[in-house]
Please model this.
Amino acid sequence: MRTLMKMNARDNVAVALRPLNGGEPLEAEGLKLETLREVPQGHKIATAPIARGEVVMKYGAPIGYAVEDIAAGEWVHLHNIRTTLAGEEEYEYVPDMHPVLYPSRGLTFDGYRRGSGKVGIRNDLFLVPTVGCVNGIAEQIVAEFKLLHPDLGAFDNVTVLKHPYGCSQLGDDHRMTRDILLDAVQHPNAGGVLVFGLGCENNIVAEFREKLGRFDESRVKFLVAQEVGDEVEAGMQLLEELYEASLGDKREPVPLSELNVGLKCGGSDGFSGITANPLLGAFSDFLIGQGGSTILTEVPEMFGAEKVLMARAQNEEVFRDIVWLINDFKQYFLSHGESVYENPSPGNKAGGISTLEDKSLGCTQKAGTSAVVDVLKYGEKLRRKGLSLLQAPGNDLVASSALAAADCQIVLFTTGRGTPFGSFVPTVKIATNNELFAKKGHWMDFNAGPLLERPMEEVLEDFVSYLIEVASGRPTRNEQNQVRELAIFKTGVTL
Model:
């Protein structure tokens, strides 16, 4: 097995691909070193002397500066490196496009064509509470429905999109709750939807219905608990109508260009930026080459790598939108008196990530090399084919829910530490290393660890084949484990 990986010829650190002992002679990547102390797997080692105050380079870009002299062979981490980031920056549009082009191969998956023209990869039944007060009753209705229809008929999953909101909210919080729930009702993976309200909440069902605009009344039903005698019986009757309406639903071959994929990472480690995230980047470029779409979010984890994305803006308008996206999120932090760069997490640090630049440059590997064609505000749906950026925080479930709400039929989630969660669309967990995949196979869907030994093109082919199977109905681990959740961003006052 390889011992070290240097990400770019300009770098003065390399990543340890296995635990290194102190005093161990190394010869790899054209380097000859001797370790000065133990270096954990996934962590960085200096490949040349780095003077105090000198920039530390990884991915061909600065990830911080040395706070003391660092000798070649020394472990580089929290004890001897600090972030270079501070405050807001001025940005200039300097295009730098180097796209990797994948020609169209005419690939298809088996999906559901909806009357709206959209395509789903699941035929799911959603119960969408307009307010958290009815979450428990919604679960009672689902339990009764499953007793009556244990095989679910034409439906793949039944999910209550539980949340604690919909009342006692003002301004942006109220709007964001409403918009995300509207997005879920209109999601192409939904073959049937029951919108369920209490009757006295801010998120009034009648107003919510009006905001939906045109919809298929045979596939979207409404229930207000305070307006009926037995709300469980009334809910069961409406679910029965949705069940009957779905019985004729069938999968059919659909071009891969109809696939919208969310890109997300969490519980990252030192391997995230060298295995799983580059795999998602290659897949993003591949899918865009087939005419499909991908969305990158986690704005706080773009800080330190934002100029890379700005240089890939399709035009100056998109560049200005990216600048707004970055500065708006920085202002969000500052408005709460918080440091803009309070990142990475304890788990990230334990896995070998030292600074926010280190994390962000690894994180944005998921976006591949394609041009950025659009910037979406939180709650907005996908508008253009290609790579878009989405306004949302780094929080795993909030960001994944935002990606799903934007009409991603599937979310790809890389992790080096492991996580069992899933959003309300299939959420594919990609392990960054072999050890995690072996230990948590009941959470993980795909292993990117072999990239340390196999060429990207080979692993990418396996990944594409696997994802076509998922899009055609193969259940993901979160679906098998019945873990499907929703989380909504909150920024303001609760009454």
